[in-house]
Every structure is written in C-alpha cells, then in structure tokens.
Design goal:
This protein has a domain of 96 residues. With 364 residues, the protein is mostly helical. The chain has a two-stranded antiparallel ribbon. It binds a DNA duplex (16 and 16 nucleotides) through helix 4, helix 5 and helix 6. Efficient DNA binding requires dimerization with another bHLH protein. Keywords: Activator, Developmental protein, Differentiation, DNA-binding, Neurogenesis, Nucleus, Transcription, Transcription regulation. It comes from Lepisosteus oculatus (Spotted gar). It is found in: Nucleus.
Length: 364
DNA sequence: TAGGCCATCTGGTCCT
DNA sequence: AGGACCAGATGGCCTA
C-alpha cells in the first residue's frame, strides 16, 4: 500500500494526509484495532488521527477548535514545525496538540463509527438477501452477487410491469431474455437453467434477432418456443446437479408453468426444503410490444410486451384487481382454477393502478 | 496468477 | 455533536 501511495501521483494528497505514518511498525495500534476489526484494516488509528489533524481537514479543525485547553503532553504538533515568532502564523483555528486523552477519544469515536458502519452494511446485505429470495433463481448455496441481484431484480420488475401493462403472456424466451438483460454469463446461465432454457438457445436467438427485442421501437413477435417443463430431463433441473434450494426453486418454476399451462398442478413441490418466501413463479405465454422510451435512458432499449399469470408471494396482495394469484408449493400452489380466463387479463391492464407506479420506475 | 467479489476501515459530507 | 450515508482504499478469499 505504501508503495502504491508513494508511486501514484494521484494519491499524493493521501500521502500527504497520512504523512507521518510512514513508519508503520506500530504494535500498539494493531492491538487496539484488533478489538474492533477484521483483517482489511490498513491505516493505524493513531496514525490516522494524527494525519487527520495534520491534514487540517475542516472536521479536524472544528474538533480541535472545540476542545478545551488541555495540558500538552509532549506530543509535538506538526512535528514542531511552527514556532511562534519565527514563522508566520497560519490562519484558521489554532491547532491543538494531540493529548493522550484526545487520542483516546478519537479512537473511541472511530471505533464506534466503524461499528455503526459494519451494522449498516450488515443490514444492507440482509436486505439484499431478502431481495435474492424474491427474484427468480434463488439459491442459498450459489448466491447471486450483489450487482447481479440488483440487475436481475430490475429486469424482473420491468418484466412484471410490462406484463401488468399489456395483460398478455410473453413467451418464455422473451421473458428470459428480459430477465437476463445485462447479466453476466454465469447468471444468465443460472436464470436460463431455472427457467428450463438452454441459455445458448436464447442467447443465439437474441443475437439473431438483433435489436428486434430490445430496440426502442422494437416489438417482438411470438416465439413458438416449444417450451415444456423438463425437470426430468434437464440437467439443470436435476437436484444432483444443483444445490437443494436451487433445485426446489427450479421445481417451483417448472411446476407453476405446468400447472398453469398444462392444467396440471404438481404436488411435488410441496416441499419444505425451501424455507424462505418463494419467488413469484412466472408463467409465460404471449407476446408483447414495447413502449417507447427515452432514448437517453440507459435502459432505453428495453421495450417488451409481456403477459403472464403469476403467483404472488405469500401474503401479498394481487397487483391487479381481477388477477388471481396463488402460491405454489407450500402455500397451496397454483391451480388452473385460479387462473383467470385469458380475456379477463386483457380487460384489466388498463385499470391496474399499479402500472403507472411500476413503470415510473423505469420511465422516469 | 489475474480478476471478481466481498468485508472492513476511513474520511468527507449532509442532516438532525 | 453525533449519526447516516457515501465512496475510495485495501486485503482476503475464491475460481478460472
């Protein structure tokens, strides 16, 4: 780190700020940190505090200015470079010398801040975990990365909003393409696997279709993709090749699709393996066309038409008045009886109040 | 070994 | 003044 600091001109301010801790052979500081942190700590607290003061940041100045006059305990500020009478005084609040008490207070303050920051990040990660559970392809053992989780969630929301808007069922291929937009190859494979698609198939098709799917003015046609649940034949669907939770989730998708479009609810995923809330299983059958978007938007190329029946999360409310949602598996599963006639869905999309809210997210 | 991902520390900024 | 939030920096772990 020191090497980098001193070799990189862009880091000169940092070097200057931390000047004075070139000698990082302190042992006491390391001990102090060990109470509070894991490996990954690089800058000694004491040194940082010294650097802070020496650097003359506004915060440091205000702290110093706020301090009561204290006994000086031999710690020469700024290396004793300023001697009144010999050099012009610096402007601004007079710097106080670092006393042992002040150093201790600074340490304590920094430790408390570190603890709060850890807690905050843990909360953030916890929320991210919850998000992972409600987007497609949840797996306890093979978690999506943070960025991939956010991307997938965004695509998922987009897909759902389009389905609500259009009231039509998209074909599976288009749906997966939307979900996978901007995702890394491994995540794309995972999503495709969850939805029982060979990722190569739809990626190839995506290339062939060019901008047809994603251009601002695009409207894509129905893909008569011969989708069928193949959990018995698909390698990704077999639990032997997947983590248990993943397998369960995959089953949920397969079964939901089957139950809705083959009219045959599978009892198999009345599984208790999965502890968390199920992602809204999606069943796709239809096509959609996209809405014009601001071309300046980074997501401008997204325009799709979706439609689907989907099962809501347990306890969640239907997003549209007359759409009937159910939850597969543990929560009772989706039965074809619960699915509204297709024409009903067409009738409701224009009065679904959530649509505007949902799309405001994408079309701001 | 390089690159991706992650946890943590840290200082700055803004808000209450 | 203190807390929340943020972004940069850093080192550890894992995988191709």
């Amino acid at each position: 780190m020191l090497t980098r600091l001193f070799s990189d001109p862009s880091l000169l301010p940092e070097v200057q700020k931390y000047s004075g801790w070139v000698d990082d052979s302190e042992s006491e500081d390391s001990k102090a940190k060990d109470d509070d942190q894991e490996p990954g700590c690089h800058l000694p607290d004491d040194d940082l505090e010294d650097g802070d003061l020496r650097g003359g940041s506004s915060r440091a100045h205000s702290e110093i200015a706020g301090e009561d006059e204290e006994e000086e305990e031999g710690e020469e500020e700024d290396g004793g470079e300023e001697t009144e009478g010999e050099r012009p005084k610096k402007r601004g609040p007079k710097k106080r010398k670092m006393t042992q008490a002040r150093i201790e207070r600074s340490k304590l303050r920094r430790q408390k801040a570190n603890a709060r920051e850890r807690t905050r990040m843990h909360d953030l990660n916890s929320a991210l975990d919850n998000l992972r559970k409600v987007v497609p392809c949840y797996s306890k053992t093979q978690k999506l990365s943070k960025i991939e989780t956010l991307r997938l969630a965004k695509n998922y929301i987009w897909a759902l909003s389009e389905i609500l808007r259009s009231g039509k069922r998209p074909d599976l291929m288009s749906y997966v393409q939307t979900l996978c937009k901007g995702l890394s190859q491994p995540t794309t494979n995972l999503v495709a696997g969850c939805l029982q698609l060979n990722s190569r198939n739809f990626l190839t098709e995506q290339c062939q279709e060019g901008g047809r799917f994603h251009g601002p003015n695009s409207s894509f046609s129905m893909h008569p993709y011969p989708y069928q649940c193949s959990r018995l034949s698909s390698p990704q669907c077999q639990s032997g090749n997947m983590p248990p939770s993943h397998s369960v989730r995959t089953h949920a998708y397969c079964s939901t699709y089957e139950s809705l479009y083959a009219g045959n609810a599978s009892p198999e995923y009345n599984s208790s393996e999965y502890e968390g809330p199920l992602s809204p299983p999606l069943c796709i059958n239809g096509n959609f066309s996209l809405k014009q978007q601001d071309s300046s938007s980074p997501d401008a190329e997204k325009s799709y038409h979706y439609s689907m029946h989907y099962a809501a999360l347990p306890g969640s409310r239907p997003a549209a008045p007359n759409l009937v949602f159910g939850s597969p598996g543990v929560r009772g599963g989706v039965h074809s009886d619960n699915v509204l006639p297709y024409h009903d869905m067409h009738l409701h999309h224009d009065r679904a109040p959530m649509y505007e809210e949902l799309n405001a997210f994408f079309h701001n």
